[in-house]
Specification:
The protein has one domain. About 75% of the residues lie in helices and about 0% in strands.
Amino acid sequence: MDSAHISAIVEGICKKYKINYESKNPNYTTFVEDAEKINKIYFQIKLIIEELIIIEEKYSIPKLGKIFDNDLIKLNKIDHHLLKMAKILRDQNV
């Protein structure tokens, strides 16, 4: 893990615990914020899937609840530091 990602983690933790910390590089802040946005999108997709499953069962529409499954799998397999940070944040929220 390089110093940029360590700084992003430090800044994210400080923000979470309301510790006044200002990074020398504002890109770290946007990195963490974008990772948080990806998390929100991920959980929104999961909620959509849950709703689709309810509709699938209610109206007997085969595979309706599986529409976004592959997309979530692909999202989790993308090898990028931003998405790795999002997964770390997502795991911390569980």
